[in-house]
Amino acid sequence: MKYLPLSIIALFTGLALAGCNTTSSPASPSPTTPPVSEGEPKQATSNEAYVFGWGNLPANIADPRGGTTTGTPVTFPKPRELPLASIVSATNSFKKDRAAILSLSGDYKASFHFLETMGLFSEHKPVRPYHSWTTEQVRILEDSGNFISLQHTLVMYFHEEDGSVMGPMVMKHWRQDWTYEDTDLHTFRGSGTWERETRPPESVKGAWSQAVWQVDDSPRYEAIGRWTHEGNRSVWTGENSWRPLPRREYSVRDDYSVMEGFHRIAITPTGWVHEQNNWKRVTGDASKAKDYRGHELGIDRYELITSPSLAAADVYWSKTGPYWAAVRTAWNAVYAKRDRFALETKYENRSQFEYHFEYAGKLDAGESWNPEAGAQFARDTIESFLSDQTSSSRY
Question: Which of 64, 172, 297, 324 is most exposed by smallest CB count within 10 Å?
């Protein structure tokens, strides 16, 4: 079993539910002849490819950007019947919601698809879609009834040029926390800043918040939403919220600073699907006039797999789990005492994930766990990136 070096880990930072630079080469769409509608008879040429929502585009624009390495094949189980048996057997809506959330755990092929659907400035031109995929374990980290924590871990196998397989490569990925009737949220406010949002109890009755955390357990975004269970359809729909830019965007764009929109999670026979509806907003200050660059749609598809084995994630967590628990505890303390804080992108020229991953890597390599020293390192690391003032930097 191998673990990703920091140079590779850097590709994954800042991702959380937004797609990752990952284990598979993006599939290049072949030239396609779309159905001809009246008034639009043009056929695709060898230099064009069809893109949903746009029609024929030049092939170099239609070809998705994303991962550049080749992942090994996966095996899928037989699709499940819907609604899931655990949802059918639940005796009330709260228990149905819990069954749906817990069903998000498992071993998956996770694929990420994003398409900019429009631009809102005169110079706009279509940009390349995004596509990548990986294999990922989603484990139940905690379940205390009204709170469920799900941890994502990348477990990746790569095809080498000589035909051999490298891996498994293991890396802690993002985390999602679900809280029932949550009245105390910290929501993203732009410019690397998060602020406490207190909700009246009546406004969240029957609802669940989903808090999403980065690979290093620093915050990403949090939103209130509601599950609905109708026939064979179980869906959670979140309220409109702000999110930081994912790496797939801020590594190539600098003309906007906030993702604003809503997202939806639906249980499927093969796993679950996360849909995103995002406006690309320029300013991170709600007091200023709104200015948007465009809009995108995203589909993150989690398909259950039976192979390859992702058991390497269990080994990783058996060794590093105590440290990551200390990191979560340190962040809980930050949330408890700070109504507003900003995060710097660097401390002594290093990103926050580098400090945490380096410490966890020593434990994974066999170093003994010291609870006091580990907890102190987690607190000190987080504090070194915190600011009470709004930062002008992007996170």
Answer: 297
